[in-house]
Amino acid sequence: MPELPEVTTTVKGLNQVLPHLIIADVWSDYHVGTKNKSPEVIKNEKFLEYFKKEVIGKTVLSAERRAKNILIHLSGEKTILIHMKMTGHLLFGNYSFTGSKWTATDTGLLQDPFNQFIHFTLSLSNGKTLAFSDMRKFAKVTLFETNTRDSHIDLKNLGPEPLSHLTKETLTQQLSKKPRGVIKSVLMDQTVVAGVGNIYSDEILWLSGIHPERKVESLSTNEVGKIFDSMIEVLNTGIELGGDSMSDYRNIYGERGGFQNSHKAYRRTKQICQKKGCGGVITRKVIGGRSAHFCNIHQK
């Protein structure tokens, strides 16, 4: 699932190409063959019609990230919220629609097989298309009044942003809300810290030398400080490398990120730990229903 660095990379791309463009048309087939059709997402056909009515003709003002959500702000005090979930990513370019399928007419990376599962598009006033590829159709797309963002169900309970609203003291306070929780799971809890998921929690704990099964209440002030410093370093590296494309993620131009080439723990099961002088081997274990990858030697 795209995490903070991937969503940040996407939002940076959107802010390069979308502002001042007008939404000329909307298309989606999310409502076809989808089981979860809650009333306020475009998987619900009635809401899709409302969505179209509200956004067609609106001008894109800017894009923003909040946790793992993409917020596209429009004129008329409307905001589109997109959560990419497991396999979703936004693409920008020239597309054509034939029959029931969207196809990129640009040659190159938009032709990547991972970019062919188009289930939602915004046709734009410059002739380009913002297309959403989502192989498993798990993503969420909805719309809300911009001035209600603080009370919106997807945003109101989120924790602080690691790279802008988090300090060592704030992290200590946030972690203390889950004293009996194991640190791997608590770091991924979006009400504690916004934007960290499975990949980056593994990498943060590897760098900080903290075992993923440690209870929060067992962590010293110094250890929480190490987690904070590691979080900032790992997330910034993820952004610098354009996100992680070990799986489906691509940026808006169809390009792969590079963070998967820098993994120290995630999906390195049975490989020698890269920490200098450690000599350990990366272990995989399911913790809280999620796979954790860690070194049993230097992570204590």
User: CATH first level of the largest domain: which class?
Assistant: Alpha Beta
Kindly name the structural category.
alpha+beta
Anisotropy-based shape: globular
Helical stretch tally = 6
Structure report:
The protein is α+β, with helices and mostly antiparallel strands and 300 residues long. 23% of the residues lie in helices and 23% in strands. The strands form 4 sheets. Strands 1-8-9-5 form a 4-stranded antiparallel β-sheet, covered by helices on one side. The chain folds into 2 domains: 4-151, MutM-like, N-terminal (N-terminal domain of MutM-like DNA repair proteins), CATH 3.20.190.10; 168-295, Orthogonal Bundle (Helicase, Ruva Protein, domain 3), CATH 1.10.8.
TL;DR of this structure?
The protein is α+β, with helices and mostly antiparallel strands. Helix content is 23%, strand content 23%.
List the helices and strands and how they pair.
Blueprint: H1 4-17, E1 23-28, H2 45-55, E2 60-66, E3 69-74, E4 78-83, E5 88-93, E6 95-98, E7 101-104, E8 118-124, E9 129-134, E10 140-145, H3 168-175, H4 183-187, H5 198-208, H6 221-240, E11 282-287, E12 290-295
Antiparallel strand pairs: 1-8, 2-3, 3-4, 4-10, 5-9, 6-7, 8-9, 11-12
Helix pairs in contact: 1-6, 5-6
List keywords for this structure.
single chain; 300 residues; alpha+beta; N-terminal domain of MutM-like DNA repair proteins; Helicase, Ruva Protein, domain 3; 2 domains; four-stranded antiparallel β-sheet; 23% strand
